[in-house]
């Protein structure tokens, strides 16, 4: 298939343009280094490839080096017919250095080049214009001014693509040879002076906000405020939506079981399906709120600033400012977060970041936290008279995960050899412009996070609930305690005794080593069989009445903060580190650490 490749400096809008061409939903966000792997899609009869952003063909960092190597191969390949150099129209000089190098590379391989002057809407917002025709004449290759965001000029570009691909002769305006690094920089400067917008126009607005957000004191306070707001809102904003979902599930449960009357089928539906699977569906809104807030932060351009603010403090723990974004996105899901760690400039810091990301409280822990917090803390309790105590407990759990990650990072930093340090890149981060969120893709992403959460966990929870219910139901009439499940549970009970937990929690914990979301479903099924209602409040009340002690409850919560109960994360760690030993070692290591912390909490409190 004839191929079109999209290249350009980081954060110039390649992926958004790629999405507009192919209809795919590749991740787009407002900080450099979002795309870390080549992504392929289709536009008409052409294959389109989205590249990770790079500043230069002679790159300094390892991940850019790999991307450049792949670009060399792609440009050399005879299937590649067109190289699209995406430029950030508002930051022309920086975009042009790399784009001119690519033009030279393409010319050497006799490949056609087209320049896309993206983000033209931002230039126009300043009331300015860029003379694309004159720039085209200077560059000796077609220039299309467009906005991948507002879609201005995108359909003209799409219409022109088949013709651009079909070009056979490559115009020759560039006289600089590959390798003449300083000449590319000089030429980019000249072109920017003649055609670009003045950088002080762009920087004026940005600086005004940055003077506050990057200020040593105020910036730190703002950072903590924003993070506190993020974690609190997961708890408070989602509540009405969660109540709505819960009511809807409750209504469906009572209607369906009403039709069935009493009997085994109704028991099964009530306890295994609505008690087990239904219990975890309630958390979908919370996961969507979390994705929305992280998405707004990603689109705003603040995250790069946060990385800058965090660089110094994180260095104390053997991490980099660039560890901040993977850590933050680890609160939604560890898997993309581990991928995002690829942009970290030092191999050692990258490894430490990857190995500690699983300690961030990902969204799969939310159901466990919400259930146990509801069990342990009355809903009307307050903290210091103002904060909702349940919300503060949530914040405390997230905070505990972060503290654990920093402790483990420090230990890893102390006990690993520092032989890579000399080859490390310095910490350099381009600050993107502040932007308003791009709402349509953001809302699609939010919806998708809910759908993915259900798709990933529902089948496992369904199967576990089904097995637990069957084992717990028979011999019929014997009651849960004397059922087959009870027998197995009592057998494993001694393991969980030091945690102050009985066999039912033991079974739920064991099952959650498949996926941690299973915990709430498994408890829902077991307590449902002993008469709990099919909703979280009912389940929480039943657990409370059953007598879960404060120490054991807190221990259980801390257990879930630390334990790495996610096989998909292990697979990702194995892929990224290239070592099964490290990945499975971490799975076992965090499991043992979690157990010890829980036992300690149960003992002390
Ligand atoms: N205003 C405006 N914003 C845009 C445009 N194109 C992209 N953006 C925004 O620019 C940011 C970066 O877009 P991406 O598509 O992720 O950039 P990229 O070049 O793929 O970045 P890397 O993957 O990091 O190399 C996002 O916040 C986009 O919403 C545009 O034409 N106009
Ligand atoms: Mg990208």
TrEMBL record:
GO terms for molecular function: ferrous iron transmembrane transporter activity; GTP binding. Keywords: Membrane, Transmembrane, Transmembrane helix. Residues 1-167 form the FeoB-type G domain. The keyword Transmembrane helix applies. It comes from the Bacteria. The chain crosses the membrane at residues 213-235, 247-266, 273-297, 324-345, 393-415, 453-474, 505-527, 548-572, 584-604. GO terms for cellular component: plasma membrane. PROSITE patterns: G_FEOB. PANTHER family: FE(2+) TRANSPORTER FEOB, FERROUS IRON TRANSPORT PROTEIN B. This is Ferrous iron transport protein B. It comes from Idiomarina fontislapidosi.
